[in-house]
Amino acid sequence: MIHLDSTLTPAALAPALDRFFAVAKTKITSLDRDYDETKGSPVFTVAGRYTTRGWTEWTEGFRYGIALLHFDATGDTESLASGRSRTVSKMASHVSHIGVHDHGFNNLSTYGNLLRLLREGRLPANEWEKNFYELALKTSGAIQAARWTDRPGQPGYIHSFNGAHSLFVDTIRSCRILMVAHRLGHVLMSEGDKPVNLLDRALQHITNTARFNVFYGEGRDRYDESGRTAHEAIFNVKDGAFRCPNSQQGYTGFSTWTRGQAWALLGFAEELEFLAEITDAELMPFGGRAALEAMMLKGAIATAEHYISNTPTCGIPYWDTGAPKIHLLGDYQNRPADPYNAYEPVDSSAAAIDAQGLLRLARYLQGKGDTVRAARYLQAGLTVAKTLFSEPYLSTDPKHQGLILHSIYHQPNGWDYTPDAGKAPYGESSMWGDYHAMELAVYLNRMNKGQPYYTFFA
Questions:
Q1: How confident is residue 208, by pLDDT bands cut at 50, 70 and 90?
Q2: What is the separation of C-alpha 177 from the centre of its chain, rounded to a whole number of angstroms?
Q3: Quick check: pTM over 0.90?
Q4: Is pLDDT at 56 greater than 80 in this prediction?
Q5: Which of the listed CATH numbers 1.10.510.10, 1.10.3720.10, 3.20.20.70, 1.50.10.10 matches domain 11-449?
């Protein structure tokens, strides 16, 4: 169980954040100078050097987003130029990509951050540049919404790259792109010039994620543990019936892949923030504010509590709570995680995502008057952040291109580099882990400096 440090404040982490941003500059420079872009998007490191891994090109936006967020925190114009120029020259194919469920990752990390910075006055006012970013986000949201599986008489969902039968828990964060496009006044135009409401599709997808990918200890099956998540929900595409939980990157559909749980926690927390920007009247056709907020809050609290209760004291989880050799670690939940162990890898990228989710959930609950849980989640988020922004997780070796160490990609497929034959994979970084650590650092940095609250829809 995570040992919450009740003395921590965001201000206490300021020196660690400054160090993190300084380290990040060396990593951005190294990638820009040395990475061979003809090989595709950097995905994860092998022996400290970023390399690609063909599955989908879901990480390219994270690379440029890291540079943009570094500018956000430091004002470094070289980082801004790096992220902005590459967004313009390389991200168009991601805007029009019909084959993936990752639009909210790639395009909000790039076009979304640039639009936010422009609106905040951090970039020179330029109406055409603003229109360019808005058009990219509108188009991306509509194309993501078109990747749709109807369930007759029931909410539908954005299906994963596995096919029309598959709902991934990760995709809750891609719902953000539909929400942004909706807020910009956009719709998806369908057959017969029929407009499709993008907010409606996002809310339908989130509803199915909450119902089928998250468990609540209500007797759904023998492994129904409150806050546990399944990576994938499988449906019969003929009648829309739910068939079973499944997993692609976790161990099984009946264990919890911890990065999938992190996507759920952060996704619910961010989308609760978004609902506060929508009027009651606009939400009424989709079930009304009370029901929608209750559904998302239930999912957020369940996953937060499960993460806190089933993670080592430092806040870094192992890659799956049911990993087959995890029992060989002994009483691993009552001591700090050991990234160098011989049995199962940790996943620092899950921790980076979880920490931001906890902090956002804490702020939301504080606003609702739930001060006890708000304080609990704030301290949990800060505790995890303190761990991430220090050794052995902060990558201080200038020869290593990663920013946060001990991330894992796909343990079942055996894709992750293992430097020692007698140990689990360790010592490497991932583009999503580095990006979400940067998001977390920017979130805290803005809090410390009294800057505008950081949201995906600003």
A1: very high
A2: 13
A3: yes
A4: no
A5: 1.50.10.10
